[in-house]
């Protein structure tokens, strides 16, 4: 086949135009001859018209345009032949003989096929004989492009005239075999011509020839479509004749493009039921294909198609088991990977993804099959380091995600022994992505993981999130992404639950073992979740006690508090002292509710140590001291000695804060430590009054300091805040706080407000006015409280 010279696109257009002009000119004379019933001239001009198709100068695309012009004219010629034989102008047999005298082979064969169509329709000869004659004669054209289009024409005019079952051209019992043989023979010859195109012309234009052949593939594939439409091709004939003959041609042609396309055609055009029943035969061809054929795509399509068939028709599932579809696919994939030694990892993994998808759709109850697929993938990956190919990595993620999506339950995936082994081949970043997918699956399906063994396996899967992998650091990770990852782990910890106390304790120990390996960046996110999860168990066990002895440690609050202490201690070493202090105080409060005074005291001790040694920022100190005061005020378990020690420490810390206003507020907050409303609570009015007086002194000192540094006495807000504390305890009935004390404080505030150095502050004015209104409201309210307020003057 002559190839186009460089820059021949314009020439090709000209050649096409010349060819079309030749077709049209000869068609004109042919029509004039047809109109005058001049058969001799009609054959002469039709042969000259068809001679235009003898060109070798056109590309397949342009040749197709020329062919279609001639094809349209041939349909009109066929109608004339049919009419001529019907009215007796010329017998079809004579006509069949007559057209064979055309001078050139190609026009002769086109005319022969056209008359052959009329011959079959006339039924003057069996269809099988005419078709056999035509398909044999077409061997006369061995030029690839011209031969392909000629045989395509033969296929086109014969498709509705095959001696099929139920057809008007059906002959004896063997006629169906003749129909199949005709289509198969035409297919085989067309495929040979198609493949031959690849090997004609210079090597440098090989890629161009490949593209041109790709444009012609449907001419060959139509034969398989015709075969699939023949009614007489039942399962037995397909199994015994059709498929083996097609596969023999596919394998023997040894052409990558043809093998890929034809295998795909077989899968697409024949019924799923046939594929299922001939699976072994079909799969046996795959390892025999050329090494560069994209087998993974074809095999994947076959598996996807059969799995969709199973999903759409559940009644056929027993057939899948009967033919052992899974075992055959698994075996075929193994052979293909073995035969194609150069197949990249991504290709092999893609095959396993398709096999796994097939398995999950067809055999969702067979976890052993699923694990077998994962095991085969591990075997393929063995010997490789971490995957660096992003496409292969993506396929591994798809492989690991499929069971999660199918079962909606990570517990099922945890039963797959090869699941973590596949994950081991992912690089660190992808391991994290997969871990997040697993956690999101748990969250989405609200999966409760309730045994320590399962949690051990789960944390092994998500280890990329809970500790540094192979010395890798998270410095390069975006802060927001890192926070999101760790928050996911924290949420996961709350999903771990078991109603059995002993098992829940084992779960907590397992979680602690893993998260304490997280390093300084992770602990502030994960330890709080562990602490609060453990405190939930403490509340459930509230009231139980017992010494921690023996190997089988019972689930007691004491044992859980030991775990809590270790976990928070690790957090305080990070360091993250403010968070650790909060958690110590939470644990102290829980120990208080469990009547464990030594434990509660120890937690407070640790909180104080953190405050003294680790918390240096003044704002953090203020927050911490108020948390300590608030927690200590709610404690009711401490004996006199322990409570005195803690309250003394707290008031001491309060008075040592950096800024005087902060000192003042912390000290008057300490007053609540000496008066609680609980039954058997502390009611020490003297110490309450001492705290408030101390706060007043500090407030006064703050005023004087402001006067020295800024030339003004500053706001009297501190005095008003202290007044409100006095009123609170006054209503509680503390005898040391009398109406006289309150009246004196009101007068002090008024004096301070009226001093020359005072700076007017609207918010302070409003605060004071509101406080006075409250006193008046209590007076008007009456009752015992109202009587107490009667002697206090607000004006």
From TrEMBL:
<keyword id="KW-0963">Cytoplasm</keyword>
<dbReference type="InterPro" id="IPR016024">
    <property type="entry name" value="ARM-type_fold"/>
</dbReference>
<protein>
    <recommendedName>
        <fullName>Vacuolar protein sorting-associated protein 35</fullName>
    </recommendedName>
</protein>
<dbReference type="GO" id="GO:0006886">
    <property type="term" value="P:intracellular protein transport"/>
</dbReference>
<keyword id="KW-0653">Protein transport</keyword>
<dbReference type="GO" id="GO:0030906">
    <property type="term" value="C:retromer, cargo-selective complex"/>
</dbReference>
<comment type="function">
    <text>Plays a role in vesicular protein sorting.</text>
</comment>
<dbReference type="GO" id="GO:0005770">
    <property type="term" value="C:late endosome"/>
</dbReference>
<dbReference type="GO" id="GO:0042147">
    <property type="term" value="P:retrograde transport, endosome to Golgi"/>
</dbReference>
<dbReference type="InterPro" id="IPR005378">
    <property type="entry name" value="Vps35"/>
</dbReference>
<keyword id="KW-0472">Membrane</keyword>
<dbReference type="GO" id="GO:0005794">
    <property type="term" value="C:Golgi apparatus"/>
</dbReference>
<dbReference type="GO" id="GO:0010008">
    <property type="term" value="C:endosome membrane"/>
</dbReference>
<dbReference type="GO" id="GO:0005829">
    <property type="term" value="C:cytosol"/>
</dbReference>
<keyword id="KW-0333">Golgi apparatus</keyword>
<comment type="similarity">
    <text>Belongs to the VPS35 family.</text>
</comment>
<dbReference type="InterPro" id="IPR042491">
    <property type="entry name" value="Vps35_C"/>
</dbReference>
<keyword id="KW-0813">Transport</keyword>
<dbReference type="Pfam" id="PF03635">
    <property type="entry name" value="Vps35"/>
</dbReference>
<keyword id="KW-0967">Endosome</keyword>
């Amino acid at each position: 086949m002559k190839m186009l010279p460089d820059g021949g696109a314009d020439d090709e257009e000209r050649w096409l135009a010349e060819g079309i002009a030749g077709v049209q000119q000869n068609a004109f004379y042919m029509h004039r001859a047809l109109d005058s019933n001049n058969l001799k001239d009609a054959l002469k001009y039709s042969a000259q018209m068809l001679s235009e198709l003898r060109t070798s100068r056109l590309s397949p695309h342009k040749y197709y345009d020329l062919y279609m012009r001639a094809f349209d004219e041939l349909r009109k010629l066929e109608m004339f032949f049919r009419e001529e034989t019907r009215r007796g102008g010329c017998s079809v047999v004579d006509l069949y003989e007559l057209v064979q005298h055309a001078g050139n082979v190609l026009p002769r064969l086109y005319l022969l096929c056209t008359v052959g169509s009329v011959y079959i329709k006339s039924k003057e000869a069996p269809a099988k004989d005419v078709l056999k004659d035509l398909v044999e004669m077409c061997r006369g054209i061995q030029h690839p492009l011209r031969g392909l289009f000629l045989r395509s024409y033969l296929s086109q005019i014969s498709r509705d005239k095959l001696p099929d079952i139920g057809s008007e051209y059906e002959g004896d019992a063997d006629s169906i075999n003749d129909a199949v043989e005709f289509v198969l023979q035409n297919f085989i010859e067309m495929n040979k011509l198609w493949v031959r195109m690849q090997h004609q012309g210079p090597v440098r234009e090989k890629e161009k020839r490949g593209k041109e052949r790709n444009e012609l593939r449907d001419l060959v594939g139509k034969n398989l479509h015709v075969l699939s439409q023949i009614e007489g091709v039942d399962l037995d004939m397909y199994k015994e004749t059709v498929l083996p003959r097609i596969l023999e041609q596919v394998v023997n042609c040894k052409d990558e493009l043809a093998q890929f396309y034809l295998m795909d055609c077989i899968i697409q055009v024949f019924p799923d039921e046939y594929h299922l029943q001939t699976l072994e035969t079909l799969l046996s061809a795959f390892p025999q294909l050329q090494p560069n054929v994209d087998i993974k795509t074809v095999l994947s399509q076959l598996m996807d198609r059969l799995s969709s068939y199973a999903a759409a028709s559940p009644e056929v599932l027993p057939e899948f088991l009967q033919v052992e579809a899974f075992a055959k696919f698994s075996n075929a994939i193994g052979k293909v990977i073995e035969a194609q030694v150069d197949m990249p990892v991504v290709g092999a993994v893609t095959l396993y993804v398709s096999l796994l998808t097939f398995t999950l759709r067809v055999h969702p109850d067979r976890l052993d099959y699923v694990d077998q697929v994962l095991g085969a993938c591990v075997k393929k990956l063995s010997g490789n380091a971490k995957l660096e190919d992003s496409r292969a990595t993506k396929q591994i993620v798809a492989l690991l995600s499929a069971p999660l999506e199918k079962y909606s339950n990570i517990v099922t995936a945890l039963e797959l022994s090869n699941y973590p082994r596949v994950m081991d081949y992912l690089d660190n970043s992808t391991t994290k992505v997969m871990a997040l997918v697993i956690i999101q699956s748990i969250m989405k399906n609200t999966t409760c993981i309730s045994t320590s063994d399962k949690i051990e396996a789960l944390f092994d899967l998500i280890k990329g999130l809970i500790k540094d992998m192979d010395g890798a650091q998270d410095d390069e990770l975006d802060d927001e992404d890192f926070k999101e990852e760790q928050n996911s782990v924290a949420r996961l910890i709350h999903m771990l639950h078991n109603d059995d106390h002993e098992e829940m304790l084992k779960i907590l120990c397992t979680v602690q073992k893993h998260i304490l390996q997280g390093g300084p960046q992770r602990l502030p996110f994960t330890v709080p979740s562990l602490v609060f999860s453990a405190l939930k168990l403490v509340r459930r066990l509230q009231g139980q006690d017992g010494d921690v002895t023996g190997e089988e440690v019972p689930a007691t609050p004491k044992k859980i508090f030991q775990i809590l202490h270790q976990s928070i201690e690790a957090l305080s070493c990070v360091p993250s002292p403010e968070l650790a202090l909060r958690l110590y105080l939470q644990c102290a409060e829980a120990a208080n509710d469990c009547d464990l005074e030594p434990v509660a005291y120890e937690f407070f001790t640790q909180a104080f140590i953190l405050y003294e040694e680790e918390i240096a920022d003044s704002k953090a100190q203020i927050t911490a001291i108020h948390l300590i005061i608030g927690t200590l005020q709610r404690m009711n378990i401490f004996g006199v000695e322990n409570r005195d020690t803690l309250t003394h420490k707290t008031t001491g810390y309060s008075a040592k804060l950096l800024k005087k206003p902060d000192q003042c507020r912390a000290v008057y907050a300490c007053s609540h430590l000496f008066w609680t409303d609980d039954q058997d609570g502390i009611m020490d009015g003297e110490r309450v009054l001492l705290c408030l007086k101390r706060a007043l002194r500090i407030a006064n000192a703050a005023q004087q300091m402001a006067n020295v540094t800024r030339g003004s006495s500053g706001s009297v807000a501190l005095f008003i805040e202290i007044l409100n504390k006095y009123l609170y305890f006054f209503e509680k009935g503390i005898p040391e706080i009398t109406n006289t004390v309150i009246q004196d404080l009101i007068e002090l505030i008024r004096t301070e407000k009226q001093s020359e150095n005072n700076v007017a502050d609207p918010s302070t004015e409003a605060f004071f006015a509101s406080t006075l209104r409250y006193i008046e409201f209590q007076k008007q309210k009456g009752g015992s409280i109202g009587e107490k307020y009667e002697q206090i003057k607000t004006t």
